[in-house]
Amino acid sequence: MNGRRLPFFVYGTLRPGGRHHGWALAGRTAAQQPARLPGVVLYEGPGFPYAVPAPEDPRAQAHGELIHPAPGHYETVLKDLDHLEGYLPGAPGNHYERMAMPALTPDGGRIDAWVYVAAGPLAARLRRDGRRVPGDDWTAA
User: Where do the Gamma-glutamylcyclotransferase AIG2-like domain residues begin and end (predicted)?
Assistant: First the structure.
């Protein structure tokens, strides 16, 4: 984990009301707040979205929530989210990669957060053939 205990930026099924929020996060968070992730766009997946970095697009920004795990729950939340997203640190062939990226809060603050983005080959395929989530907001789609 590299020792950093960052909040998580969630943008799909882990958002409040999403099908994975209840078992993975409900009762294990200290706070959550709306946020945007600049330089990232969302693509449609099979029942969930993929986040893909788009540094070349200055207007790119995914919409989601910053989730702050409650004291005593951080390691369990991290483990469960890594498992859900098919992420194993350093493993080739990960479905997603977990990256630290700056999220923007409604009051203009910047908070570094963990975000799961589509891994390299998948991200390239989505950029080439994928279908963007309208407005880069999964809950509004």
Answer: 8-139
Has residue 3 been placed in a domain?
Answer: no
Q: What is the pLDDT of residue 77?
A: 97
pLDDT given for residue 56 in this prediction:
84
Q: What is the pTM of this model?
A: 0.93
For residues 35 and 107, give the distance between their C-alpha atoms in angstroms, rounded to a whole number. Answer: 10
In contact, 139 and 15? CB cutoff 8 Å: yes
Residue 2 maps to a domain: no
For residue 87, tell me if it sits in a domain: yes
Q: Beta strand pairing status for 29-38 and 8-10?
A: unpaired
At 105, phi and psi to the nearest 5? -95, 160
Per the structure, the complete domain to which residue 49 belongs is given by 8-140
Domain tally, the chain: 1
